[in-house]
Design goal:
By secondary structure, this protein is α/β, with parallel strands linked by helices. 37% of the residues lie in helices and 17% in strands. It has helices at 6-9, 23-29, 52-67, 83-98, 121-130, 141-153, 196-209, 224-227, 232-244, 264-274, 301-308; strands spanning 38-39, 45-46, 110-114, 133-138, 161-165, 183-188, 251-258, 278-286, 289-297. It has a 7-stranded mixed beta sheet, with helices on both faces. A two-stranded antiparallel sheet has the order 1-2. The chain is globular. Residues 1-6, 195-207 and 214-220 have low confidence and may be disordered.
Length: 310
């Protein structure tokens, strides 16, 4: 009997990835995936999710089949994101924006992806689903190069996604949001761990859960600036809140994923002290666990509605 993973039952209604993957359709869209499909111990067609190449090939098939991204690749060792969970953030963000736009998802708008990574996943999904335009910021030069190669390999993206290098490792919006620019929303998947050692231990736990030894490569990879920063997620999002006050009139909504629920009270207090007029916490399924993103704005409702009426 085929079962639906619990996290997929909780996905946003517009998410294209409810239920089990239709591997026949995905193979038809991207034939290299066929080499990785086999029957699992329950007799269902699947792939080995502990195999990094299998997972990357699945992502290539998903992006081609659902999002018209014909060519997608990432360098070895970089984060290979779970597409269903990443799509959920995009759809819930669309609902947030629709709340200021007569319950209709706005289309002709600009978004800023903080730390777009080599995979460029949020701009790819957001542009395909809602025709949004994106600026992706990135501190890692190799990730920046890889993201640029994705754009160049898919001509329809050239006017939809632009990249900006963050030259200062401790800055988030500074140097990225230029004078007189307006963004309708920002989004971010911040570094989760507080140290390299914590990231290593987290990787080992995931390997153990997959039944692999410590020397095995993780299927999702991840570079230092993707997995950890000093102080971890709490410090990163707190810094984002502090910087956001300087761009309060240049962005309608600031948002960021928050993986640790226990970080929320601190962030709520920080937003109150920063003078945010409205704060929302949106719960969702994110990969194999419950997650959420936090959103804040320094603009009153009437101003948000005016800026989103495009």
């Amino acid at each position: 009997m085929k079962t639906i993973p619990a996290e997929k039952m909780l996905l946003h209604p517009r998410n294209r990835h409810h239920g089990r993957y239709d591997l026949d359709a995905l193979v038809a869209s991207h034939t290299p995936l066929a080499a990785f499909v086999a029957l699992n111990q329950w007799g269902n067609a699947s792939i080995d999710f502990s195999d990094p190449l299998a997972v990357k090939t699945l992502n290539q098939a998903l992006l081609r089949h659902f999002y018209q991204v014909e060519h997608w690749d990432i360098p070895q060792g970089f984060l290979c994101p779970p597409v269903p969970g990443r799509a959920d953030y995009i759809h819930h963000l669309a609902d947030l924006l629709a709340g200021d736009h007569q319950q209709r998802v706005p289309r002709n708008i600009n978004l800023l992806d903080i730390g777009c990574g080599a995979n460029l996943i949020y701009p790819l999904i957001g542009h395909s689903e809602y025709q949004w335009r994106f600026t992706g910021s990135e501190v890692n030069p190799q990730a920046m190069t890889a993201a640029g190669e994705i754009i160049r390999a898919n001509p329809q993206l050239s006017r939809a996604i632009r990249l900006r290098r963050q030259k200062h490792s401790q800055a988030i919006f500074n140097g990225i949001i230029h004078k007189n620019e307006l963004y309708h929303a920002t989004l971010c998947n911040p570094p989760f761990h507080a140290s390299a050692e914590a990231a290593r231990q987290g990787s080992e736990r995931k390997l153990k859960n997959l039944g692999l030894d410590k020397q095995s490569p993780l299927n999702f990879g991840g570079q230092q600036d993707e997995l950890w920063c000093e102080g971890g997620e709490l410090a990163f999002v707190s810094r984002m809140i502090d910087e956001s006050t300087r761009y309060a009139r240049q962005c309608v909504w600031f948002t960021s994923l928050v993986s640790r629920k226990e970080n929320l009270p601190h962030l709520w207090r920080a937003l109150e002290q920063a003078g945010a007029l409205v704060v929302r916490t949106i719960d969702m399924a994110q990969g194999q666990k419950q997650s959420r993103f936090i959103a804040w704005s320094f603009m009153p409702a009437a101003q948000r509605a005016k800026l989103l009426s495009v």
